[in-house]
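S.,

Sequence below, as promised.
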Amino acid sequence: ARPASPVQPDTAGADSLAVDSLAVDTLPAGLLPPAGDTTRREGQEPVVVRPPPGDTLVLFTESADTVDRMVVEDSVLAVLRSLEGYVATEYTGERAVFVSGTNELELSGESRIAREGSALETDSLLVYAGETGVVCGYGTPVLSGEAEPIESDQVCFDIDRDLGMARGARTEFQQGATWFVRGADNRVFVLTGGEHNTLYGEQTEFTSCDLEHPHYTFQARSLKMVEDEMMVARDVTLRFEDVPVFWLPWMVQSMKRGRRSGLLMPQFGVNDIVRNSTGYNRHLSNLGFYWAMNDYMSAKGTFEWYSGNWTAVEGALTYRWLRQFLQGNLTAKHYWRQQDGQPSSREFTLNTSNSWQPDERTRLQLNADYASSTDFVRRNSFDPQELNRRITSSASVNRSFDWGSMSLGADRQQQLSTEQVDYTLPSLSLTVSPMTLFSNGEGLDLTWSGRGQASRRTRDVQDTLPRVRDAESLSASASHSLTFGRLSLNQSADYDRDTQGAKPALAEGPDTVALAEETGVDMGWSTSLSYQQGLWTGTTLSPTFSVSGGLIRNARTREAIDTLGIGGRQDFVQEPLRLSTGASLSTALYGFWPGFAGFSRIRHKIAPSLSWRYSPRAETTTLQDAVFGVRNLREQNQITLSFSQTFEAKVAEDEAADTAAVDTARADGEPRRLPQAEKVMLLALNTGTSFVYDFVAAREDGRGFQTDRITNSIRSDLLRGLQLSMTHDLFEEGEAAEPAEGQEGDAPLPPRTFDPFLTNLNASFSIDSDFWLFRALGLSSGAAVPEPEEPVDDEPGEGAPVGAEADPERGAGGLGSVVPSRRDGGTAGRAGVGRWRAQLSYSLRRNRPGQGLADDASQMLQGSFSFDPTEKWSVSWRTAYSFTDGEFANHVLTLSRDLHRWQANFDFIKAQNGNFAMQFRVQLRDNPDLKLDYDQRTDPSERR
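The prediction came back faster than expected:
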């Protein structure tokens, strides 16, 4: 019987780091290298110092360069390899000594033995014992196979058991990043074969730095690494160069790939362990467990403690089933608040995002954010973005049919500043696609289409707020269109019901009503007939005729009924039948101008639209005049003008390049086609408000110009992302004159003067170091700023997110958002040394003074700036300045330093609510849980 192999299996156990069972004396004594220097020198031929015995066969080559000729693929070798039931073992070497008595083979020089995908190579000596099936390599042996190659000082491999052991091993392990492991004094052993390679070591160094002289290393007294399973180390010292900077009694890291269940790494800072002041409140978060339920679902539960403020428990569920187009997440967090060391109240926040597409025509979505107390969010949030937005929720179901589509949805909006909550439940829309009822093939097709919608909206406000109260509105509308060639018949009907809730008078008592509930109903219908006639290219003329009517019931109708004594208070008042006719003309005018600078030609486009509408005076009753007003029911003769214009430039191209492109196309036999010229939008002006002039109003009231406000927008490619929108109030009104005694009809209009006043202004643009003006002035290299890289997976390893972006819970000043949310953990690419980006946005809102409107003016400037002063440093700053308050509203400043496999971040956050925080973090890219944190932040409880 064959004796047991001297290569021992893993007898240390999975929870042991001892390597005594793998001592050097377990190597076969008969396979140790011969005494003396067996390493072949360069150019030296193998020498036989003694004649071989009778049972020994010696083979050697003439020179080292003949090794490659020893393995020649011939017919005999091919037949041997193809034999069934046999496993081929191939030997290659410069000199071979085979002892038949002991069935031993020695290969000297550059030698190699390979079998079933595993190979052992060495540059000195390779010994194979046929009786035991063990092959050992000396010198600089390399054991390779399915795993990473293992370099060592000595390696033995049991061919039959597929088990090997290396002494003084130097190898690599993959776990997100590449970990390089090496040991001193031949005290690192690697067991190969079986299910996983296992490494044992004493006085071992491991690092993820791939430089010849690594920046940092972990030095462990004892180490065990099981490939794709785990790494356990004891007495670990972190060294930068040769300087020890940190010590860990033990270190454990999973080497498994993908998702797996386990304990989460708790998060805390240095000052959470050692306080720098007695008033500092410690903060501990992310203490919990992660559960990988299956391939599609995962869950986690965490505990958070903020001394003197709250204790919180958070639960999260994530699922993703791509084959079923189903994905989403749900995160809920429950707070137990404290005040003066005693429990005070409970709060609840929730965030969820879900999407399901059961088939190609159906899509369901649910996105929800909820906070039981907006005051709790305002006081405790350190996230400026959270404080700027509303807490919104929405749900929708969309379904497409052969004949059209249907959508059913709901939404909720919660204001952080006023605690106002707006609901829309439900919101239903139905669309019928155009259907061809008749077709003669000559363009005279008869088609029909329709649309309907219904929604219910409610508003819930605080009773203490002035001028606002609860409200509810119900609206529905339906319309259809019948088209025959260029002739169209359109009909529509709508229904609106508005209810203003009762408002109590808090000064006298909760049961005293200051404002009673008011309900108004408005129903209307209209029918129109239009014809579209093309005059010339880009010009159309469309005459129209319409008739409309409706019913109304509100506080004004009840007041008119009580005054005139006609009918009952709940009666509807019919709107007079209104006839109108008109026509509209739209066209596009083009002008071409010579180019300038780098532009070869300029195109100016003006797109005006002019329409005329006439409506005779309707036959009315006294009640209708009182409800709708005489001025609104009289004759109307209006013209409306709207227009937009653009200036586009064609970028000049190299004539020689154009000619070469044409010639190349001709040589390939393809049709010649001139390349498309690059176009730049120099300026786009759009007047969003139409100018309306009424000849009857000019004759009766002296107010022919009916447009009170005008909105203009400007866009240009010369400033990247330039969006400019402004609204002007055109007229300033004086005091209204008192109506004359006994005067019937509407009260006289107050005098007004033309005095444009800016009421709204919104502007935004972005600029960078490659701006065209900087290039023209020679201040830029002209190289394009690289686009941001795609976000990377949050698997620890190469390029894993770091800093504030990597950790949403502690990224916003150490606390983050109060309402849990999912954020993108990807990092943007660096722009390059000396390059920068800036984005600015400005907003202005105000009312004209002296018009009886509330003075709620606001003026805000927001901006972000990022640049890379050096190859390793990057800076980003986001801020907002309120001109109204005369102070900065918020700051987010981040300094990042790339330390090769490490990264350092400094974050400073000041939120709108006065909370500010400073955070310093240094962490290993390849294991983000290995980090050093320092947090300093305000205590929200001090401002209660």
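The chain has five domains: 1-9+17-139, 168-257, 420-531, 534-667+677-707, 756-943.

Coffee later?
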